[in-house]
Amino acid sequence: MAGHRTVRGSIFLSVSLLLVCVLVAFSLVVYDYLSAVARERFADALTSLSRSLLANLDARVAEMNRVSLTLIYSPIFQELYARHLALPRAPDTPSERMGRLENSEALIEICETILGPNRSAPQLNVFDLRGEMVGAGYYSGLIERDVTREGWYPEVARAGGGRVIRPPHMDPLLEETSIIVKDKRYLSLVRTFRDPLLSTEGVVEVEQYCDDLFSELDLLRQSSRTLFVFDRGGSQLYPYDGAQADRGALLRLAGRAARRPIVTGAFPGAREPQILAAAVSDDNGWTLLIGEPSAGLAASVLQYAARIALLTFAAIACSLAASYFIARRVTVPIKALHAEIEALDLGNLEQAWPGTKRPDLGEIDGLRLAFQDMRIKLNASLREAVMLRAHEKEAQLLALQAQLNPHFLHNMLQTIGIMAEEDPPAAIQGLIMNLVRVLRYVSSSEGTTATLGTEMEYAQSYLAAMRARFGESLEYVIGLAEALRGIVVPRLILQPFIENCFKYGTANRPPWRIELRGARDDGRWIIEILDNGPGFSPATLERISARLAAKERGGGLSPMSISGMGILNSYERMRLAFGGGTIFEIANRPEGGARVAIGAAWHG
């Protein structure tokens, strides 16, 4: 046995010395090669960085371009804008003033919809050619502003519908609107749009923050790098918050950097020479010029040398370790690890498997212990995932509580204003009390569940408020068996379906009828939401059924929208509350209209 150990030690020492010699020779050759190409790679990296930065700028400008095109080609916008032009600027009658106000609000709403919830841009302006502007964003409203007197209008008009990028500038209107955008600079994308007879009928402007558009450049600028961006005409776009640099000098440097792979030069006003790289955008005609001090090249070479040395020592250490462990027995720990893997399932994640605790564990033994630790952590992660799922559902409920349509409040306040002129105080008081009950219930943070009786009382208040708005055009019936009033359900479970009745069920001519019925039926309780609207199309019913079936099988699907909450979301909330006995039915009524039914098994 001792002889075997001596032979094994000699082989280990010989192999180790041979590996060390080979690795040292290889490291010297690699170091010589990397030193020779370090300068070229440094320049290539700088060029790639400039192209990447410019590509990101192109993408952000393309998003601004998309917003403007989406707006002017929107049929809804075209219809509203045509109505805006047809309405008189100075209406004489209350109905004309109301029509003008409602149309302006609709124009602002479509603009804000296109900007999206994440605000693709802080401001979107639409100018007509008769001296008015509709703004959406930080400033939303209709004001008098003659676009033909703007200094940039002649260039935009000559572009004939093509996009024009205005250099960084400040917006006095937004300065006065909000302190949040105080001292902000903007870069605008402007274009004209035409009517069906190809006559220019307006101008659309998309404004974006300069500090948002050039955020990546601002981060790089904090380091030793110097960056400039200028457009096809040589106007400096970045830096946007300082004095303009020598345009001619920048153009000459950019031309040299674009023609040669490695260029060294000094920026205007700087003494230290820098390695330069430039990129030119085919989309916008912008040129990005970036420079980094030559000292960075020496640092790069040192980094290469350090990496080679580190890799050499790591390779030598690994070679010695490999030579040592190859001589050891590894079969037994591998078999033990294999047995543990074969026996693993969800039921025994927490089971403690027998194993050694020696301080001189081998790699396989260490891997085995790491696998055991992984099982314990996996079990903890699964428990955490279940808890997070529950918290996610609670967060979705809070989101539903916060989603009360602003137009609902707007319409209710308008209704109260009209009733104040025409109806007795008792009717106004009734509407206000119903509105108070709705807002109190929606904004309450008292848990994530409520009784069916409370849900029906909220629905009664909501429908009564809507009845005050629509008058005789709306009929509703609410009926709930007394035995069902104490059943605990997810809060606001009925609200998405009631809103759906108003969104789609009112597509027919009035009167509109909405019914909420709650009753026991064959060992289960059911709440029906009925309307007399056009109902669901066959394609919609088929799609909903397919997605619900897929959800039953455990598939991860994106929700189908219904008044801001997903059908699958509502279904999941019922499933979490009542399990496999959940009832969830969507269909069309034989007499016309839609029917949605939710419920669960009755337990008395």
Spatial strand order of the main sheet:
3-2-1-6-5-4
What does the overall shape look like? flat
Unreliable spans: 1-5, 556-565
> Gap between N and C termini, in Å?
80 Å
Biggest sheet: strands, sense, closure?
6 strands, antiparallel
The number of distinct helices, counting runs of at least 4 residues, comes to 17
- Rg result: 35 Å
Q: Give the % helix.
A: 40-55%
State which percent range the strand residues make up. 15-25%
Summarize model confidence as the mean pLDDT: 80
Give the beta-strand count.
20
Structural classification: alpha+beta
Describe this structure in words.
This protein has 604 residues and is of the alpha+beta class. The N and C termini lie far apart (80 Å). The longest helix is centred in the first third of the chain and has 71 residues, at 2-72. It has a 6-stranded antiparallel sheet with strand order 3-2-1-6-5-4, with helices on both faces. Strands 8-7-11-10-9 form a 5-stranded antiparallel sheet, sandwiched between helices. Strands 13-15-16-20-19 form a 5-stranded mixed sheet. Strand 17 (561-562) and strand 18 form a beta hairpin. The protein is built from 17 helices and 20 strands.
